[in-house]
């Protein structure tokens, strides 16, 4: 009944929200949208200087104040050099990006995917490749050619959060990357976790999946708290995919969604929706969680999401307003590919701008609109 009541409350809140095209706002960007973020894969060493130029010339000019870099194994780890990518960022490379962000007042947050996303397509990522004993589903073999759907329901591998040795290793990576990036926050990913509490896992079987997910959030949060760092995660596993109709990707259909009532309240939720301006930010805020709305490549949807977030803050109670954090543009192509698209891509003609759905167009329209407010 608690879940149904929460969803009903969400529906009531959504109905009461003004249409995005009716909203007008004016004021300092920090009061309208305290977090104005950009999330992208970290560059490879050869692309660091180009990306620093992008920070200086594009992010700073658009008043972006938060940069999430998806690092994963693209760093020359000293604690576990066996987990480095073959070509990886040095500490000197990282310090160039740190210096650029400091100069412009941009908070730099590194991300290493924890729990899920330990593989992609038919390739196992470094953690499970070097430590296969951490695999939640070792009996699921990586295919020669990946296709979805498949008989194993394989999307991405997960590590088993109850393996007694996994956290000693992943937390060493977290500490090292946070120190190198001089970070006061860390993004742990944790999206699209399909393999969790598997019936064949001797450590996890018969365990409540929401409890397993929440426990892992608490472990990571508590580890970061020792060094006064804040945990950020994606929010999809805490939304009910069946009740909301959001499905198995942008929400959960494997029983993890009750974890929204079990996770710590001092984390930051990155609430991503790419094809609709779903109002689930209201749901997270009503649960006492700070939330940031995340678009991708649809400019019209991104602007609507931005206007919704401004409206949430403008109409919220004093207790809820601080929980509506802002907006975070996500980029899901490689760093170098996005920069090539950004600088070489042609701007769509005025008559086609509404139908142009690219990451470049989404980024420029979103932040140009913000800066016009």
Write the layout of secondary structure elements.
Blueprint: H1 2-16, H2 29-32, E1 35-41, H3 48-59, E2 66-70, H4 91-103, E3 107-114, E4 119-120, E5 123-124, H5 126-130, H6 166-180, E6 185-189, H7 209-225, E7 230-234, H8 241-244, E8 268-272, H9 280-286, E9 290-294, H10 299-315, E10 324-330, H11 335-344, H12 359-372
Parallel strand pairs: 1-2, 1-10, 2-3, 3-6, 6-7, 7-8, 8-9, 9-10
Antiparallel strand pairs: 4-5
Order of helices and strands: HHEHEHEEEHHEHEHEHEHEHH
Mind telling me the CATH class? Answer: Alpha Beta
Number of strands: 10
Sequence of strands across the biggest β-sheet: 1-2-3-6-7-8-9-10
Helix content: 25-40%
The main β sheet shows up as: 8 strands, parallel, barrel
Radius of gyration, taken over Cα atoms and rounded to an integer in Å: 20 Å
Mean pLDDT: 92
Pfam family, one: Glyco_hydro_20
Keywords: Hydrolase, Signal
Protein name: Glycosyl hydrolase family 20, catalytic domain
InterPro entries: GH, Glyco_hydro_20_cat, HEXDC-like
Keywords:
373 residues, alpha/beta, TIM Barrel, eight-stranded parallel barrel, two-stranded antiparallel ribbon, 14% strand, globular
